[in-house]
From TrEMBL, chain A:
Pfam family of the protein (one): Adaptin_N
Keyword S-adenosyl-L-methionine attached: no
Top-rank taxon, per record: Eukaryota
Chain segments carrying region Disordered: 687-708
Residues annotated as domain Clathrin/coatomer adaptor adaptin-like N-terminal: 25-480
Gene Ontology annotations for the cellular component aspect, listed alphabetically: AP-3 adaptor complex; endosome membrane
Organism: Brassica carinata (Ethiopian mustard)
Listed name of the protein: Clathrin/coatomer adaptor adaptin-like N-terminal domain-containing protein
Keywords: Membrane, Protein transport, Repeat, Transport
Compartment annotation: Endomembrane system
Main location class: membrane
BP GO terms, sorted: Golgi to vacuole transport; protein targeting to vacuole
Family statement drawn from the similarity comment of this UniProt entry: Belongs to the adaptor complexes large subunit family.
TrEMBL record, chain B:
Species this chain originates from: Brassica carinata (Ethiopian mustard)
Keywords from the named record: Cytoplasmic vesicle, Golgi apparatus, Membrane, Protein transport, Transport
Family to which this protein belongs: Belongs to the adaptor complexes small subunit family.
UniProt domain AP complex mu/sigma subunit: residue ranges: 34-174
Subcellular location(s) of the protein: Cytoplasmic vesicle, Clathrin-coated vesicle membrane; Golgi apparatus
GO BP of this protein: cytosolic transport; intracellular protein transport
InterPro entries (alphabetical): AP1_sigma (IPR044733), AP_complex_ssu (IPR016635), AP_mu_sigma_su (IPR022775), Clathrin_sm-chain_CS (IPR000804), Longin-like_dom_sf (IPR011012)
Protein name: Adaptor AP-1 19 kDa protein
Topology of this chain in the membrane: Peripheral membrane protein
Length: 785, 194
């Protein structure tokens, strides 16, 4: 009688949609109702309550584990309607720890033996979801019987369940296997599909044991017209062919047939995947597969593009020609609007041996790839990078690609990553050391910016270095004479930082006289050795022509001079009073302050202090200083007039020059002064043009990089790496505002322009690839930075 | 070679074959399920159906739904139908206001799963007659029963739409017949006077 007034599930749902009280209070009221109703003895009431509860659990995440026993009760009803509700509740909510699990064993057995095939199917479905070891063991005889049932509906389901039973109770294999093999010869496509699915799983776990069944699978491969079955059989052969290579030869022919004949893209993709992963030695098959990949890549459908790239990345390690054949499509994909497609293209490029790729294709293509990769990866503060160790190794690898001309960008990213990503610093130091130690790099003009970044990084994060001694040797090697002075200065400063760090750890080790906390332990001999090496390396620079180099060299030498005395007097190191100790501690303090990324708006935020005049003319200066300051002769000023120090004169002259020059700098006082200063002291300015006549040697005048390339490990992207997504991404420092993207901007670029720049970049890449002639013209004009 | 193979298929050699297989098996083999879960979610983020083929606790399920809905609902219209998520792949397709999502492993064939989704939608369409989201809201249990005929243990079990429709209608008829019988006056009286 109760259930005439009971709210049905439909009422509950309607009520839910109309409710005004708020979801959670509605749910708790409904739950109260359900708790009452579910205790009723009447099975109809109980099952309706259970039904409502299942709904709440599935859709609204309400916990229903407390109703487990009631579910068992409902399942025991003779009515199909109740059984269905009960089994659905059980499948949804039971798990290995449910206490009443064993109570359903008998009920399951009854249902599995039922004449009503739908009851059987309910039981099988439930077993497939919640089967435990005990259940599987107790019910495997029933499953075995059902595998031979006359009703194909039942046989099909039983086959589907068999894997779960095997998983939980391996002895069942003995019992059921023969029936499974018999079912391989069935004509019913659904049963066949289920059986083949089972063997597909078995083959992945233990291919050699499924090998004897290969002829059966072969028959299916040739005869079946059902795509679902064919896909599974292909997967089986992919596993078997890796164990038995002779199989590959036999199977290649039928697979090619399928690839040519079928219209189903899913089947084509599976064929392609099988061929490139397991049959990669069969030329004809691979050629056909690559042709199909090519077709995928030019389709409009982003799904096919994505899958084409994925298949290509499997093929790439052994068949580089496949990538080269499709290189336009790949580069186009790098600028696709779908981030997944872009990422897949990126993974593809990085999985390949970039060395080989660039050796075989022209330098322009190489550089285009490099710059696309750099821009995509660095967008939005390296949003897409999860594994920074890999990315840093990649930057190092890019440096070694012959004809790499993207030095500034790599330099910028190395430093940027160092500042933003703390966890990547050890890898950065490692990669930098490998770059610094290589003498071949020093001769390559384009790589100098990278070396300056490498040396800065090594000095700044020296605490992560495994061997500071080797680092110092790299920094003071004689061949660094090839570097321009401003980079030399950075090297010397890094040497100084390393020296301070080593001395600091040496002194602190001495004081504590037990194991120091730093990873590097210095003995008296080793620290003395280090200091001597530095002294010998830096000493010649103390007479350098460049003032910056000279000054820094002298600083280091002075510091060494002071420290050496204290190192020699080992005895006095027990007390803190030694001068070297104090100075070292002080310098360590200075260097320990962490440098972070600076917002582009930072300067604007600094308040101008009162009384500071920036704009006013300094004309008064002449009265005071005119007699003391001698005018400087300059060749670059066209007028023969004596150059006075008067600012107003300079301004007028510079305005005239600025208006006639090609740059569009506004004639402000500060920039004209800058132009004047630059003319006088040009050699101290950073070169902005690649074709600077002051540079060392010609671009190609360097020996090839040596074996130290192997120091930089670049793991190709293998499937295991993708699974490592679960490892948490290191923290990347982002600025709230003022974070700029730096890639490819000429001088007066605004933020709005940088967006359209991306599109023009990709268009540029495309046009460069498709029309080689245009590319040569651009090279002649000089590639815009 | 053919003789060699066929002789292998003799029953006698099966025994050694079985045993070798059993002995090589580890206690728990952890067979991979193709589809780990199915999720139907509306444009506004409301859940319409969830079916789990891998073990997930109730808490984990809520977390997965929240996360995945966030990822998928933010995707633009013209992008590809596969997303990488937590080391798995999720294949999704939007039909009117509903997103149908299925989570699979890295080795599985995405296009195949896309076809499975389409298969499911066509069956629903046939059953409800031009199915819309409202049908699934009010008949959520029927959507489950249909899904149970389509997938078992996370694998496709029936690729024929006609067969699925036949099975579901047969089950419906069973339920109807039983209801009629229970609803008859004589039965109510019998129940009341128990």
């Amino acid at each position: 009688m109760d259930n005439m007034f009971q709210r049905s599930l439909e009422d509950l749902i309607k009520g839910f949609r109309l409710q005004l009280l708020g979801e959670s209070s509605f749910i708790s009221r409904a739950l109260e109702e359900i708790r009452r109703e579910i205790k009723a003895t009447d099975l109809s009431t109980k099952s309706t309550a259970l039904h409502k509860l299942s709904y709440l659990a599935a859709i609204h995440g309400v916990d229903m584990s407390w109703a487990a026993f009631h579910a068992v009760e409902v399942v025991s009803s003779s009515r199909f309607h109740h059984k269905r509700i009960g089994y659905q509740a059980i499948t949804q909510s039971f798990h290995d720890q449910t206490s009443v699990l064993l109570l359903i064993t008998n009920q399951l057995r009854k249902d599995l033996n039922s004449v009503n095939e739908y009851e059987v199917s309910l039981g099988l479905e439930c077993l497939s979801r919640i089967g435990t070891h005990d259940l599987a063991r107790d019910l495997s005889p029933e499953v075995f019987t059902l595998l031979g049932s006359s009703k194909s509906f039942v046989r099909k389901k039983a086959t589907g369940v068999v894997l779960r039973v095997f998983d939980k109770y391996p002895d069942a294999v003995k019992v059921c296997f023969k029936r499974l093999v018999e079912n391989l010869e069935t004509s019913d496509p659904q049963i066949l599909s289920a059986v083949v699915g089972v063997f597909c799983e078995l083959a992945s776990k233990d291919p050699s044991s499924c090998l004897p069944l290969a002829p059966e699978f072969f028959k299916i491969l040739i005869e079946s017209r059902n795509n679902w079955v064919l896909i599974k059989v292909l997967k089986i052969f992919a596993k078997l062919a890796s164990v038995e290579p002779r199989l590959g030869k036999k199977v290649a022919e039928p697979i090619c047939e399928h690839m040519k004949r079928t219209v189903a893209k899913s089947l084509v993709f599976e064929c392609v995947r099988t061929v490139v992963s397991s049959l990669s030695d069969h030329e004809a098959a691979v050629k056909l597969a690559v042709a199909k990949i090519g077709e995928f890549l030019v389709e409009d459908d982003p799904n096919l593009k994505y899958l084409g790239l994925h298949a290509l990345s499997i093929a790439a390690p052994k068949h580089l020609w496949a990538v080269l054949e499709n290189k336009e499509a790949v580069v186009k994909a790098l600028s696709d609007e779908d981030p997944n497609v872009k990422l897949e293209a990126l993974h593809l490029l990085m999985a390949m041996d970039s060395y080989e790729l660039c050796a075989k294709s022209d330098p322009l293509f190489c550089n285009e790839i490099i710059i696309s990769v750099l821009s995509v990866c660095s967008r939005n503060a390296y949003e897409i990078i999860v594994d920074f160790n890999w990315y840093v190794s990649l930057l190092g690898e890019m440096t070694r690609i012959p004809n790499c001309q993207r030095g500034e960008e790599i330099e910028h990213q190395l430093i940027d990553i160092g500042m933003r990503v703390g966890d990547a610093r050890p890898q950065l130091v490692r990669v930098s050391w490998a770059l610094l130690i290589d003498p071949a790099m020093l001769g390559n003009l384009f790589l100098h910016p990278i070396l300056s970044a490498a040396s800065w990084v090594s000095g700044e994060y020296v605490e992560f270095a495994k061997n500071p001694y080797e680092l110092v040797e790299a920094l003071v090697q004689p061949r660094t004479d090839l570097l321009p002075p401003y980079i030399r200065a950075i090297y010397i400063h890094s040497v100084f930082k390393v020296l301070v760090f080593c001395l600091g750890s040496y002194f602190s080790a001495q004081e504590s006289s037990s194991g120091s906390s730093s990873t590097v332990a210095f003995t008296y001999e080793s620290i003395l050795n280090l200091v001597n090496v530095i002294e010998i390396g830096v000493w010649p620079l103390s007479g350098a022509y460049d003032v910056e180099v000279q000054e820094r060299a002298k600083n280091v030498l002075g510091f060494i001079g002071m420290a050496k005395q204290d190192i020699a007097k080992k005895v006095n190191l027990q007390d803190n009073e030694a001068e070297a100790c104090r100075v070292t501690a002080f310098m360590e303090d200075v260097f320990s302050e962490e440098l972070g990324p600076i917002s582009a708006n930072a300067q604007e935020k600094v308040f101008v202090p009162d009384g500071l005049e920036l704009e006013e003319n300094l004309g008064d200066l002449e009265e005071i200083c005119g007699k003391f300051l001698k005018p400087v002769e300059s060749d670059s000023v066209p007028c023969a007039d004596k150059i006075s120090f008067s600012v107003s004169n300079l301004r007028i002259r510079d305005q005239q020059e600025a208006s006639s020059s090609s740059t569009s700098l506004p004639p402000k006082a500060s920039s004209s002064l800058l132009a004047e200063h630059r003319k006088r002291h040009g050699m101290y300015y950073l070169t902005s043009e690649k074709n600077d006549p002051d540079s060392n040697g010609t671009p190609n005048d360097y020996p090839p990089a040596n074996d130290l390339a192997s120091e930089i490990l670049l793991d190709p992207l293998d499937p295991k790496r993708k699974a490592k997504h679960r490892k948490s991404r290191p923290v990347v420092v982002k600025l709230d505002e003022g974070d700029e993207s730096r890639i490819i901007t000429s001088q007066a670029k605004t933020k709005q322009e940088s967006v359209t720049d991306d599109e023009s970049l990709s268009r540029a890449i495309q046009s460069a690839l498709l029309v080689n002639k245009k590319g040569k013209e651009r090279e002649a004009k000089g590639i815009q930075i | 070679r053919k003789l060699f193979f066929s002789s292998l298929l003799r029953i006698g050699s099966f025994i050694s074959f079985f045993w070798s297989f059993v002995l090589r098996c580890a206690p728990s083999l952890n067979y991979e399920i193709m589809i780990h879960f199915v999720l139907l979610v509306s444009r506004q983020g409301k859940v319409r159906l969830t079916k789990w083929y891998s073990p997930y606790t109730q808490k984990e399920r809520s977390k997965v739904i929240r996360e995945l809905s966030g990822v998928i609902l933010n995707r633009g219209p013209k992008l590809c139908n596969f997303v990488e998520w937590r080391g798995y792949k999720v294949v999704y397709k939007r039909y009117a206001s509903l997103y149908f999502c299925m989570c699979i492993d890295q080795e599985d064939n995405e296009l195949e799963v896309l076809e499975i989704i389409h298969h499911y939608v066509e069956i629903l369409d046939r059953y409800f007659g031009s199915v819309c989201e409202l049908d699934l809201i009010f008949n959520f249990h029927k959507a489950y029963y249909i899904l149970d005929e389509l997938l078992i243990a996370g694998e496709l079990q029936e690729s024929s739409k006609k067969t699925v429709a036949r099975i579901i209608s047969a089950q419906d008829q069973m339920v109807e017949a039983a209801k009629e019988e229970a609803g008859s006056i004589s039965n109510i009286i019998a129940q009341a006077t128990k």
